[in-house]
Automatic annotation (TrEMBL):
Name this polypeptide is given: LysR substrate-binding domain-containing protein
Organism: marine sediment metagenome
Composition bias type Polar residues, residue spans: 78-87
Signal peptide as annotated in the record: none
GO CC, alphabetical: cytosol
Pfam families given in the database record: LysR_substrate
Region annotation (Disordered) ranges: 70-95
GO biological process per UniProt: regulation of DNA-templated transcription
Domain LysR substrate-binding: 1-63
PANTHER family linked: HTH-TYPE TRANSCRIPTIONAL REGULATOR YBHD (PTHR30419), NITROGEN ASSIMILATION TRANSCRIPTIONAL ACTIVATOR-RELATED (PTHR30419:SF8)
Amino acid sequence: LVEAGLGVAVLPKLATPAAGHPIIHTIRLTEPEVSRTIGIVRRRGATLSPHASQFLKMLLEAWRSPSRISEPDKLRSRSAQASSNPASVGPRRKR
């Protein structure tokens, strides 16, 4: 719709056109800071291939790394750990 001249769109960076698009001009939004919740999706009851299993393991280790978590998220995470299952996989925040 944007390319047809019928509006504007707010998109994640991954979905924006490459620089130099002949019709669409992209403006990076920096304020206010925007975050979104992302998660891992897999087919229920299916066995993952060895490569997919390794990739999932790598993702979970990276997301659980203390250096990936902001200070407010650390505080929320600590209080939630007492009542949550440590093996559960839930959405993580990406900044």
